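Request: Could I get any protein with tokenized structure?
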Amino acid sequence: MTPEIFLIGLIVSCVFVEMTGFYPGGLIVPAYFAAQSEQPFRLVGTLVVASITWIIYRILSHWLILFGHRRFALLIGLSATLGVLTYKVLPTLWPFSLEFRIIGWVIPGLLANAFERQGIWPSLCGLTVASVVTYFLTRLLVM
């Protein structure tokens, strides 16, 4: 991972948000997805943890008052907890699960927050477009 990919990813994300009005899962998330593109199982693992985090949030929101900073903190905390579980519990149950490690501790929480704010499909489509553009611009500009 080169440091340039994060700058390019941030610029691509900002331009994408200005052009479409949709966040690609967070401003820095496409850069992390582009940086980990050679490990597709990590991308899948991160999306699975983000989805599970969002589902748990939706269940908890029936009983708790969650909005703003509380919602964001809960989503980040849930994703970090699920991330720890994927590192600690899953390898003992299924050895192949080491391939499904998540990207960072915060990235799934940012994705889950985007899922809640604007919906799953706009977030995933935006993430895909911004990540692919970031990946190719990084390959083109950084040699």
Notes: The chain has one domain: 3-141. The radius of gyration is 15 Å. The chain has a mean pLDDT of 88.
